Amino acid sequence: MTHTRQQAGVRAGGPGVVAGHGPAPVTRSAAGAVPRRRQAGEGAAHGEALPVVPVRARGLTVEGADGRRYLDCFAAAGALALGHNHPVVLEAMRSVLDSGAPLHVPDLATPVRDAFARELLATLPGELAGSARIRFCGPARADALQAAARLVRAATGREGLPAVDGPWDAARGSTGVRPAGVLVEPVPGEGAVLPVPAARMRRLREAAAAGAVPLVADETRTGVGRTGALWAVGHSGTVPDVMVLSGAVGGGLPLACLVHRSGLDAGCDSPGVFPYQGNQLAMAAGAATLRHVRRNRLAERARELGARMLTRLRGLAGEHTQIAGVSGLGLMLAVEFAEPCPAGVREPVSGGGGAGAYGACCRAGPGGTCRSGGGEGPARTPGAPGALRTPRAAETPHAPVAQPAPGAAPAAPAPDPGRAAARRHAPGTAALVQQECLRRGLIVGLGRRHCEAVRLLPPLTITDEQAEAVLDRLCDAVAAAARTRRTTSTPGTPKEAGAASPAPTP
User: Fold this and answer.
1) Beta strands in 430-479 (DSSP E)
2) Which residue, of 242, 269, 297, is where some domain finishes?
3) Bias regions of kind Low complexity — which residues (predicted)?
4) CA 186, 382, 423, 334 torsion: positive or negative?
5) Is 38 helix (H, G, I), strand (E, B) or coil?
6) Domain limits for position 215
7) I need a labelling partner for 345 at 20 to 30 A (CA). Which of 77, 133, 192, 237 fits?
8) What's the structural domain count of the chain?
9) Cβ distance 245 to 258 under 8 Å?
10) DSSP 306-351
11) For 213-261, how does the pLDDT look when each residue is reduced to its tens digit (9 = 90+)?
C-alpha cells in the first residue's frame, strides 16, 4: 500500500526543505549475573571490538554492565537521531502500547501509519512532497534498495540500477545501455565524508531527466538532519524521483520505505506483503523523531555544531602526521589515518563542506610513496604542475569558488580530500584509536571497505559541552595511539600502556 499526500491529510505544495552495526550478542556468565561478550567463533560485528555490555542508556550516555559510563558517538551508525531513549520517542511508543492497537499491521492503513506519513511528507522538498507517494517495505537498507530497483524496473521496462560516484551520462550509462534508473548516495557513508559536489548532483539530475531515467537518492544514512539539512539532497537543491529511507527514519527502530513521485508506479504491481513492513512502534517512533527534528530545527543545529567540531578536528590533524585527513558535513564526521610523512609536510586543504584538513604528503610520488630524502627525483612543490591534486574540494556544497583579483595569478586548485587514499593506510591505526577512545569512555565507529577511518555520528541532540568532551577524549586517544605506534615500531622500546580513566560524563 502506498500513501499520497492527500491521503495523509496534508495539503499539497509542501514546505520544501528546512534548512548496522549493532553490539555483539551477549551470553550469561557462569554465575548468571553479568552478561559477557560472546565467545570467539560466534561471528563478528561492530561490538566484537568493543567490550561493552550496555544495560542503560539515555541521550548520548551509555552505562555498561560493569558500571562504567560512555559517550556514544556512534549512535547505532547514526540511526539514533535523538540519542538513546529520548522522551518524545518513549512517549510515542507508550501511547501505542497503552492504546491496545495492534503492534504489527502489514500493508493496512492505521492512525499511526497515517501520522508517520504526514510527518514524513512535511519534511520533503516541495516539488516532491506535492505529489509524493510512500511505499513501505522490509525494515533494512537492503530491503529498501531492492524495492527501489523493482519500482524503477517496472516503471521503465528496463534493467539495471547502477550506483554513481562521479560524472556519468544518465541517458546511456557506462555500458551504452540506458538503465532502469540511476542510484546516488549524496554523501557516501562508509569512510571519509566526501559529499557528491552540488554541481555534479545538479548535472546528474539534468542528465537523468533528459534520458528519462529515474534518479534514485539513497538517504538511508544521511536523512533526518544528519548532514545539516533534513535530507542530504537539499544541499544541492536536487529533487530526485525516488528517495530510499531507512535508519533514523524509524526513530531508532527498524523501518524502511520509499518516497517517489506519483505516476512512477503506474505500471507497478504491489510488491506483496513483507513480514515486518507494518511495525507500528517503529512508525510511532519515526513520526515523533521527524516532528521533533523539524520543530526544533535540529538540522540547522547539526550544521552549526558540526562545523565547529570539524574546525577543531582540523587543528588535531595539524598536530599529528598520521592523520591523512578529516572530513565532515553536519554531524557526520570522519578522521582518516595513514602512514606519517617522514618530512612532516602536507598540503593544507581550503574550503568547507566535506573537504579534509590535509591531503596527501606534498612530496608523494606514484603509489603514495613519500619522496622526501631524495631517492625518487625532485620533490613536488604544492601547486606546481604535476602535483597530484584535483579541484574537487572547490565543488563541495558549502565552498564557493573564490575569484582571483583582476590581474592576479589564478589560485592553485585545492587538493582533493579523497587523495588521502593515495597514501598508504596505516593498518590498524583507526582500530587502535577506537580502543584508546573506549578506555577514555568514548564509543566511536570505524570506516568500512578497508578504510582506516574513525567515524563520529553523534545524536543531533548533543550539547556543546558534550561535543567538547567527545573531542577532548578523541584528541587524547589519537595522541595515545601515536605514542603506542612509535614505541612498538622502535625495537627494544617497552610499549606504553596508554591507559586512562574514563572522564566524568558531562
Assistant:
1) 442-443, 445-446, 453-456
2) 297
3) 397-411
4) negative
5) coil
6) 2-12+88-297
7) 192
8) 2
9) yes
10) HHHHHHHHHHHHHH-TTEEEEEEETTEEEEEEBPPPTT--EEEPP-
11) 999 999 999 999 999 999 999 999 999 999 999 999 999 999 999 999 9
